[in-house]
Design goal:
It is built from ten helices and 15 strands. It is of the alpha/beta class. It has one domain: UDP-N-acetylmuramoyl-L-alanine:D-glutamate ligase (3-Layer(aba) Sandwich). The strands form two sheets. Strands 1, 4, 5, 6, 9, 10, 11, 12, 13, 14 and 15 form an eleven-stranded mixed β-sheet that branches. Strands 3-2-7-8 form a four-stranded mixed β-sheet. Helix 2 links the parallel strand 4 and strand 5. Helix 1 packs across helix 8 and helix 4 packs parallel to helix 5. The protein starts with a strand and ends with a strand. 47% of the residues are buried. The chain binds adenosine-5'-triphosphate and 1-O-phosphono-beta-D-fructofuranose. Adenosine-5'-triphosphate (ATP) binds next to strand 13, helix 8 and helix 9. Pathway: Carbohydrate metabolism; D-tagatose 6-phosphate degradation; D-glyceraldehyde 3-phosphate and glycerone phosphate from D-tagatose 6-phosphate: step 1/2. Keywords: ATP-binding, Kinase, Lactose metabolism, Nucleotide-binding, Transferase. Belongs to the carbohydrate kinase PfkB family. LacC subfamily. Belongs to the carbohydrate kinase pfkB family.
Amino acid sequence: MIITVTMNPAIDRTIEIADFTVGKVNRIETSKIDVGGKGINVSKVIQELGGHSMATGFVGGATGEEIKKHLKDKGIQFKFIDVAEETRTNIKMVDSLKGIQTDFNESGAPVAEKNIVALKKCIEELCNPGDLVIIAGSTPCNVNHDIYLELTQLIKNKGGKVLLDADANYLMEGIKATPFLIKPNLEELQRAIGTTLEGVEAIAKAGKDIVKRGITHVVISMGEEGALFIREEGTIWAQGIQVPVGSTVGAGDAMVAAMAYGLEQEYDYEKLVRLSMAAGTAAVMTKGTESAAREKIIEIEKQVQLISL
Ligand SMILES: Nc1ncnc2c1ncn2[C@@H]1O[C@H](COP(=O)(O)OP(=O)(O)OP(=O)(O)O)[C@@H](O)[C@H]1O
Ligand SMILES: O=P(O)(O)OC[C@@]1(O)O[C@H](CO)[C@@H](O)[C@@H]1O
């Protein structure tokens, strides 16, 4: 089974503004609402690919109810911990003239300690040997930096494999428990290791250093430059594919979803890389935090160019 853990889900409101100007009244051209949060986005894409997952994490208030309703309508299974605090709303602003996207993410209200304990228990009960567990995104603001280290250890003790997509200290701490796969974007990787990396070779070297620490797969997404897929056996650079950009929100999540789905289907490595890259690229073409259609992903798969480094 594939399990997704989203400790800080969100409703994403994507607004389009032509030529956004600071300090002025800006008129919103379009406004769109999607359910989001990284793990939930992963569940959405897995469903689109024809797979199944179980989504868990915290949800609360009217926004939390909206998330549950959407997942139910889509036929995505979930077992969330209901909390008193309202699930956050994040604003994604797309400047349709300049082609620039800006995210305004709320921190996420603090959750009670008893709920953190309940989530750990829920994950422990859900996880069985061989399961793939995706832990993705930020956490509510009062959660300790070592939470992903703790969850990774718990999941590994149950025989599960962790795919971790986190930022800064949460990523660095999580790495200490050697998850099976990590998928930082370049900025997240640089923040985690505290160094700026110039050029693909330097980025690949940083990824290889992490692989040496016992992590089987390191996937570094680099926006329009594509992504590096690094394992002990070697590094593949899947080059970026030029596509019309709707919104880049959720592109990284689509890559992680495809990796999880492909691993579950036991795809060979090259097919895994192609699917992951195609899923990320197709996600960029949709508006807001919408998942791309499976047919689009399959179509793009054929265009993926791989270079061995
Ligand atoms: N502007 C773009 N044009 C083409 N492909 C893109 C673009 N931006 C992203 N991608 C594709 O999507 C993948 C993931 O993008 P990115 O590195 O931005 O992930 P991310 O920051 O983790 O995304 P998110 O956190 O919003 O899910 C890239 O590796 C690339 O294949
Ligand atoms: O604040 P976090 O948890 O780091 O990221 C949250 C978020 O930006 O990630 C998803 C896209 O990857 C969005 O659906 C959501 O709003």
